[in-house]
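Progress against Task 2.4 (sequence-to-structure conversion) is shown through the following example record, which the project officer requested during the mid-term review.
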Amino acid sequence: MREKKLHMLFIPLLAACMFLAAIFGYTYSVKAEDESSAPKIEGLEFQSEMENQFAECFHIYYYNDDYTVIDVPGSGQFLLVPEGKTAPEGLDENIVVLQKPLDKIYLAATSSMALFSALDALDHIKFSSLQESGWYVDAAKQAMENGDIVFAGKYSEPDYELLVNSECNLAIESTMILHTPKVQDMIEQMGIPVFTDRSSYETHPLGRTEWIKVYAEMVDKREEAQKFFDEQAKIITQLKDFKNTEKTVAFFYMSSDGSVVVRKPDDYVPKMIEIAGGRYVPTKVSSDEELKRSSIPMTMEEFYTQAIDADYLVYNGTIDDPINSVDELLQKSELFADFKAVKEGNVWCAGKYLYQATDIVGNMITDLHLMLTGGDESQMTFMTKID
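C-alpha cells generated for the chain above:
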C-alpha cells in the first residue's frame, strides 16, 4: 500500500517537472529501453535513438554502418543510405530511400533554408521555390545571385523538366504540398523522393529550431547542428528564473477580407511570449479551426472583445506587409483606436524575416523580453516599435 501511495505521488511530480522543463529549457528526454519504436529493417541492427530536447514532430534512429532513419509522423519514414552503400533488400515499401550524397536538393520548405545556412550547407541546395527577391536569408539571396541556387518554380508549379534534367535527388516541401497532392505524385513518379517538413507543427519555439538536426543528418553535420542548437537553447535557460510580468500581448495580422488572424493558444508564438515574460491573448478561438491550423481567423468584433485591454499589440508582418505607423493600423480598422496598447503607445511590428528565421527563434524571444521590460530597442532583431 505504501509503495502504491509513493507511486501515485511520483506521477504528478514527474509531470510537473517535465512541464517546467519544456517551458524553461532544461534538457529532458527518455531514452528508449528497447527498439520497439524504431523501424525494423532486415540486415540492419538498431543502435540508438536521438533524444529530442524540444521537438515532438520527428524521431531519428541510428543503425549500424551509419544508416539512419528519420521518422516524421504524418509524412513518412526515410532511410538515409551512406554514400557508396545501398539500401537493404526487402525494405518495407513505405520507407523512402534517401541516397547520399543529397547534393541537388529542391527546397520548397522556405523555413528550412535558414537551418541549411546555419549548417554552412547551402551547397547541397541547388533549386529554390522562391525567387531571389523572396528570400530574407542573406546567404540564400547571395547564392541565387551567384547562380549556385536557381529558381525551379514555386511548390505548386515546379519546373519538372529542370529538376529531372539537373538530376535533383530530393525535394523538401512544407505541408503546403498537401494541398496539391498531384504535384507530389508527379515529383515522385520522376524518381525524386519528397520529404515533407512539419516543423511548423511544433508547439515549442525551439522545437522548430531543433529541426536543424534532421537536416544535419542529410548533410553529415551532426556535431555542428548540436553546437548551434545548444547556443539557441541558452537563451531560454537565461530567462528561466525571470518572473512573468503578467503583461498581455496580442500577436496578429489583418486579412484582406477584414478578419483578424491570430495564433492558436498552444502554438509556438504564444509559447515564445510566455517564455519572454508575458501572457498571450486572445485565449479563446474556434475549437473547430484550432484543430486544423496554427493560424486562426476571427472577426474584428471577436478580437476586439478579447484584446482591447492587451498591454501590447504586435502586428505580424511575416504574412501581411509590415505596418509603419499607427495610422496604417487604423486604416485597417478604426476600432483599433479604442485599444489600450494604441492609447498607451505600445504598438509593435514583427518583420518579414521572422518566419524564415527558423535558426534564431531565440532572438525573437529576446526581442519580446526587451519589449516587455522596456529594454533597448536597438538590441532587437525582429521587432520595431510603431508610432
